[in-house]
Amino acid sequence: MNITDRVIAIIAEQAVLEPSDVTLDSTLKDLGIDSLGLVESIFAIEEEFDISVPFNANEPQEGDFDISSVRSIVSGIEKLVKEQS
Amino acid sequence: MKRVVITGAGTINSLGTSVPETLEAMREGRCGISELEFRDVERLSIRIGGQVKNYQPETRFNRQQLALYDRFTQFTLIAAREAIAQAGLEFSGELAARAGVVLGNSGGGMTTLDDNYRSVYEDGKNRVHPFVVPKLMNNAAASHVSMEFNLKGPSFTVSTACASSNHAMAQAFQMVHGGVSPVMVTGGSESMLCFGGVKAWEGLRVMSKDACRPFSANRNGMVQGEGAGVFVFEELEHAKKRGAAILAEVAGFAMSSDAADIVMPSKQGAARAIKGALQDARIDLSEVGYINAHGTGTAANDKTECAAVADVFGAHADKLLISSTKSMHGHLIGGTGAVELLACIMALRDGVIAPTIGYEEPDPECALDVVPNEAREAIVDVALSNAFAFGGLNAVLALRRFT
Known about the structure:
Mean pLDDT of chain A: 92
Largest sheet of chain A: none
Strand order of the largest sheet of chain B: 5-4-6-7-1-8-14-13-9-10
CATH superfamily of chain A: ACP-like
Subcellular location (chain B): Cell inner membrane
CATH class of the largest domain in chain B: Alpha Beta
Protein name (chain B): Nodulation protein E
Order of helices and strands of chain B: EHEEHHHEHHHEHEHEHEHEHEHHEEEE
Keywords (chain B): Acyltransferase, Cell inner membrane, Cell membrane, Membrane, Nodulation, Transferase, Transmembrane, Transmembrane helix
Distance between the termini of chain B: 19 Å
Low-confidence stretches of chain B: none
Radius of gyration of chain B: 20 Å
Oligomer: heterodimer
GO cellular component, one term (chain B): plasma membrane
Pfam families (chain B): ketoacyl-synt (PF00109), Ketoacyl-synt_C (PF02801)
Low-confidence stretches of chain A: none
């Protein structure tokens, strides 16, 4: 599986959906993932890719990691995987 | 019902090793938050906290005591000794039989747990010290206070995360108020500043890496602290009869449960607790001059708390002062309400309002007078202390100036 599929699988599991129901344009809100679900997803992503994601729940819009859609999350992770490998 | 007053106070926290030192630091707006110092701290991404530094337990406790007392118990005993010495009480006979100790605590002996897990898991040892269990149990501090001071009445530990101390003090208040005992020792303590303790909090991603800036638009999370606050709650006539100095009156309290979310706070739940405390204490809104906020410095708490205060107080919300001393001593979790009660006593007795330090940018969602950065003089008749815990468990205490 490529990075996109692996991220989608994690997010789908968190949202209790089939991966086919999660698109790159989906937002976490669309998928029904709340702040606690987001923190849990980021933990699962860090474990999956053995990376550290800079994310503070107090300022989700700040920092380099953009969580506005599945697409932005995937591209953020691609960048982190490259930087931290 | 009996009136309840505070006749003794004690503390140790990152601002000082006694009440006078702590109040001086609060008056000066000093910050007790610094670089954490303990084993494996380099493996943490959060490396600051309100840690008690230059602490030498061997000057306070003997070898046998140190073998039995986790850090949270040590802090509690230090605070209890100061509080009971100030109250000038000796517990014997009928007073000893009725007086008890109710303390708040959330994590128990976290450093004991951390050290011993490390020993069996990481170092692969197959034997632990025989006192691990009596050291780490949450009620260890309350039990040791009862033993040191001969308190034989109702004694127990209350654990409601960040509201533990306020719930505990509410219980103690109720016992004196209802006539169960003329004296109760109460407050709370916490010591989670060890690798495992901070690592667990790190996971939630609500901690700040640089500072606790409650109500400031650029706040970015909470900072943990450690220590203890202990008080002597005494029935007014009992205190008067022996000529005890009275620090403040405990006028009432309320508790509420959000019944909503395990971590997100609720405006309605907070507002119900604040309003309930005023009703219980028969206090008119306009009498409240100061609120010691829960003010954790997280995005969620501070705006929810300000909205709750605005809802309860209406136009008076703009006249009262509200500050978060967590900006100075950090968040003592189960011990936090106890240390913060000191700021309420200072407001009522000394007319000095502890500031919210680290305040840099106004936040329109926290548009109250948060006493930014510098202490202020004000005559305050009634002060409230807010505590809103994870799990949605809220407890608010109301204190009145004693004249």
